[in-house]
């Protein structure tokens, strides 16, 4: 199961300086948010616009509004069907729009980013750029897509073209860029500025975005108490926010060492939120405390959900972790890793390819890929651990020693179950 621990880290965290040994979370702070509430996936506003759509409809505004509402429902429920319905509405809007077409191209591109269809998202962005419209919106989208595709030099070019320190969107992208470069202090500084701007404007959506992202970044920096407080602030705005609850559950698990409580928090989330990775995280925590019943139940739930073809490539990385760490299907892992590299040639994808090659016995090729595409190009502890294993297999003890030193400082992010594996490197 250690590969699953690595995978959780890729999603949740990226680098760490110190670890707070003190217990942080208090049930009294968050219990009121754990009451399961039915998520409303309709409204008078939605029903009004949806009623205007007919099989031969040309109601452009209706398709745009309905697509946006479906996307919102996806964010609230984690139900992939809403994301696919949003795609359908936005594709229809693109087809029939004569005026304002770039707006719908960009909206559909962002939908494809959520589905991990990055190359298609880039094509749509190109289409929006070819027509014109809001140049800064298109350049922002170009930055986002190229970061997902690992085209970092191009992404930086678009970021430079956006420079506007009074713009929330620019500041959060500048934060993301500095996080990619490993400059966590600068990342946090820009995100704090963005948070302040959102609070002054009293924009709840941007405040929520700021709090959850700062919760992550503070965790990266070992500022666990600050991370916890940001997640609580997010929940004050959106009582049902699954991501903030997952952040608190990670603090409870990794910092406070209270696995049962972490699972209780996540159980409250999965009553109404359907994303498969939450079940995988519960299985991971249960594995740490040797609760085979809870572990197996949640793994089965994950496998059942990801069989839905609507997910496409969204869970490739998670499935890679399972193929290698759980089912030992190394051949399947190698096939999927190659597919993921083709889909998004980032250091993360290449690291999985290298690791899959190692498990298939090709340690020389694994090191070649790690040297070329991963080492020195990422600061994520999960990927550094994979690199350390590849280098260890190839007798590169000096590099293993160097990486081990960094990983020991990142145990909070890697999770308590990884501590022994790191020390055994």
From TrEMBL:
Task: List the SUPFAM superfamilies hit by this protein, alphabetically.
Answer: HCP-like
What Gene3D superfamilies has UniProt attached to this entry? Tetratricopeptide repeat domain
| Coiled-coil region(s) | none
Which parts are the TPR repeats?
208-241
Superkingdom assignment? Bacteria
Q: Which InterPro entries match?
A: TPR-like_helical_dom_sf, TPR_rpt
Keywords assigned by UniProt, alphabetized: TPR repeat
Q: What is this protein called?
A: Tetratricopeptide repeat protein
Q: What organism is listed for this UniProt entry?
A: Maribacter caenipelagi
Show the taxonomic lineage: Bacteria, Pseudomonadati, Bacteroidota, Flavobacteriia, Flavobacteriales
């Amino acid at each position: 199961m250690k590969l699953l621990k690595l995978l959780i880290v890729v999603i949740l965290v990226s680098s760490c300086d110190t670890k707070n040994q003190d217990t942080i979370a208090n049930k009294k702070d968050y219990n009121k948010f754990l009451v399961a509430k039915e998520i409303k996936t309709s409204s008078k506003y939605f029903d009004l616009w949806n009623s205007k759509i007919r099989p031969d409809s040309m109601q452009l505004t209706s398709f745009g509004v309905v697509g946006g509402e479906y996307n919102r429902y996806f964010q609230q429920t984690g139900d992939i069907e809403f994301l696919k319905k949003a795609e359908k509405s936005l594709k229809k809007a693109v087809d029939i729009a004569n005026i304002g077409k770039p707006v719908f191209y960009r909206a559909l591109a962002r939908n494809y980013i959520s589905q991990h269809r990055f190359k298609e998202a880039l094509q749509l962005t190109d289409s929006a750029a070819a027509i014109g419209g809001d140049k800064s919106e298109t350049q922002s989208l170009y930055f986002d897509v190229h970061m997902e595709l690992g085209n970092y030099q191009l992404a930086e070019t678009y970021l430079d073209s956006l420079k506007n320190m009074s713009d929330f969107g620019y500041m959060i992208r500048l934060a993301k860029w500095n996080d990619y470069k490993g400059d966590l202090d600068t990342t946090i500084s820009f995100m704090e500025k963005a948070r302040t701007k959102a609070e002054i404007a009293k924009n709840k959506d941007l405040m929520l975005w700021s709090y959850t992202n700062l919760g992550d970044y503070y965790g990266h920096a070992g500022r666990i108490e600050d991370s916890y407080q940001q997640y609580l602030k997010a929940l004050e705005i959106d009582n049902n926010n699954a991501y903030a609850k997952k952040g608190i559950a990670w603090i409870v698990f990794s910092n406070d060492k209270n696995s049962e409580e972490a699972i209780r928090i996540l159980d409250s989330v999965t009553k109404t939120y359907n994303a498969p990775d939450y079940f995988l995280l519960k299985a991971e925590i249960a594995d740490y405390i040797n609760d085979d019943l809870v572990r197996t139940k949640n793994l089965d739930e994950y496998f059942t959900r990801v069989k839905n073809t609507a997910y496409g490539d969204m869970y490739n990385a998670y499935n890679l972790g399972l193929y290698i760490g759980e089912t030992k299907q190394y051949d399947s892992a190698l096939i999927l890793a190659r597919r993921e590299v083709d889909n998004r040639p980032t250091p993360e994808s290449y690291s999985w390819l290298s690791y899959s090659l190692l498990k298939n016995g090709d340690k020389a090729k694994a090191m070649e890929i790690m040297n070329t595409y991963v080492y020195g190009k990422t600061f994520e502890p999960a990927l550094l651990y994979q690199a350390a294993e590849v280098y260890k297999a190839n007798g590169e003890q000096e590099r293993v020693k160097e990486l081990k030193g960094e990983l020991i400082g990142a145990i909070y992010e890697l999770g308590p179950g990884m501590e022994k594996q790191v020390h055994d490197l």
